[in-house]
Design a protein that fits this description.
This protein is an alpha/beta fold and 442 residues long. Helices cover 50% and strands 9% of the residues. It folds into two domains: 195 residues, no CATH class; 239 residues, Rossmann fold. The strands form three sheets. Strands 2-3-6-1-7 form a five-stranded parallel beta sheet, sandwiched between helices. Strands 4-5 form a two-stranded antiparallel ribbon. The longest helix has 21 residues. The chain is globular.
């Protein structure tokens, strides 16, 4: 996608608002809006301060709902780090887990191998002897030759082939895991020897150090592994393998699912398992829970939309795009979804409230098909109290957060509170439950 100014042609709405189209860092810049004044609480700058203030590599966690614009914030952090905004320049290496891994099925072996691959891609043009890289690659091939992986000849061709196999070939992925899991401690040791070279080479380029940013790990599909304990595949990776992830001797910023911060039995320990308390980017507030009035966040969402679309040319009036902003719940991605669906439903040359409502109806149809029974008492409580019930079933809470049924917001002092996603609130069963006399509370 090529960066453009706000488009005036309604026919280009789908193009410029498609949240699934990858945008390079340079292309993202014209679209960025600082949302920190209306998010409240923690900010991504806290990660920067901790990193810069540490004398050794740090391993930090970043979370937030999908669609809260974490990737845009990460790009801004990269810009600050590489530009030396805090007094020291860092070379950032960015890994998009969604592009490199099968997020339906991720293990530590997968992650470590694609980390090695991504670092190699980012540094192979640097003139350096790379002795440790040659050693690492040699040992990788030795293990490969002793394995029974069917595609071993293809993997011999280079490290890029490995990530393709891990992401797209389940049989090869299973074979790679079987071969390298018993060898993972040695793999980490060799990776660290290579990282010493990488850090030294980048320092020769004028950088103070290297920061590895692993984005989109929060998209790993949630799977319960033990009903009795509530343990999930998220716990298996982020908690059980935390010490091995931290064994990589390089600054790391890792995204993780927001449900981990509230529903894992290990959630209180995340700050000690890693090097800092997780920073959670909340949704943009669209209303003030104390006054009940619209929040400044609506104007911020309008500004985000206005960076892509000429609001006066695309919408018939201000209240039309404000409705889209309000019904997004503060999710930038869902704001774009609403506008795209409205554009598909439109009847005139500009989008109207009727188009927005039609677009919302097409989205909410999916929610109407869901069975909400176990969630309804929780939704009633969250709608009234803006917190989960104290006795909430942890599995339902995890699903509510992971699937964006319930969204987290924060006051300016960092106090978290929750509300139903407006899409959920519009679902027939939920609407009936929330009506006076329609719900049984908790």
């Amino acid at each position: 996608m090529t960066a453009v100014g706000p488009v005036k042609d309604i026919g280009r709405v789908i193009e410029v608002c498609n949240p699934h189209v990858a945008i390079d860092r340079e292309e993202l810049e014209p679209y960025y809006v600082d949302c920190s004044p209306v998010r409240g609480g923690a900010s991504i700058e806290q990660l920067e301060r901790f990193l810069v203030g540490s004398q050794r590599p740090t391993h930090q966690l970043l979370s937030g709902h999908r669609g809260c614009d974490k990737t845009s914030e990460i790009y801004q952090l990269r810009k600050r780090l590489e530009g030396g905004a805090a007094g020291r320049r860092y070379r950032t290496i960015y890994l998009d887990a969604d592009a490199e891994l099968d997020t339906n099925d991720v293990t530590l072996v997968d992650l470590v191998l694609v980390i090695i691959k991504r670092i190699r891609e980012e540094t192979e043009q640097i003139t350096f002897s790379w002795t440790q890289w040659k050693h690492l690659w040699s040992e990788l091939l030795q293990v490969l030759e002793r394995s029974d992986i069917e595609s071993k000849q293809e993997l011999n061709l280079g490290i890029v082939k490995w990530s393709w196999a891990i992401k797209s070939n389940p049989e090869a992925r299973a074979g790679i895991r079987k071969a390298y899991e018993p060898w993972v401690s040695r793999l980490l040791e060799l990776a660290n020897d290579y990282l010493v070279e990488v850090r030294r080479a980048t320092q020769q380029q004028g950088y103070g150090d290297v920061v590895l940013i692993i984005d989109s790990l929060d998209r790993i599909v949630l799977k319960e592994q033990d009903r009795e304990t509530g343990k999930t595949n998220h716990d298996a990776l982020f908690v059980d393998r935390a010490s091995q992830i931290k064994a990589l001797d390089v600054h790391m910023l890792i995204t993780l699912p927001i449900s981990m911060c509230y529903t894992s039995i290990n959630a209180p320990q995340l700050g000690t398992l890693y090097d800092n308390e997780p920073v959670i980017i909340p949704m943009i507030k669209t209303w003030d829970r104390k006054s009940g009035k619209d929040d400044r966040g609506l104007d911020i969402l309008g500004e985000i939309l206005g960076r892509r679309l000429d609001l006066d040319r695309i919408f018939d009036e201000r209240e039309t795009w404000l409705t889209a902003c309000r019904e997004s719940g503060g999710s930038v991605r869902d704001l774009f979804r609403i506008v795209i669906q409205a554009a598909l439903q439109r009847r005139g040359e500009r989008l109207t409230r009727q188009d927005i409502e039609a677009g919302l109806a097409s989205i909410v149809n999916t929610y109407d098909r869901l069975t909400w029974g176990p969630f309804l008492p929780i939704f009633v409580h969250v709608s009234k109290e803006h917190q989960f019930p104290d006795d909430v079933d942890v599995t339902l809470k995890r699903q509510a957060l992971y699937n964006l049924f319930v969204l987290e917001y924060q006051d300016q002092n960092g106090t978290p509170w929750f509300d139903l996603h407006p899409f959920v609130r519009r679902a027939r069963a939920v609407k009936q439950s929330l009506a006076p006399g329609g719900g049984d509370g908790c």
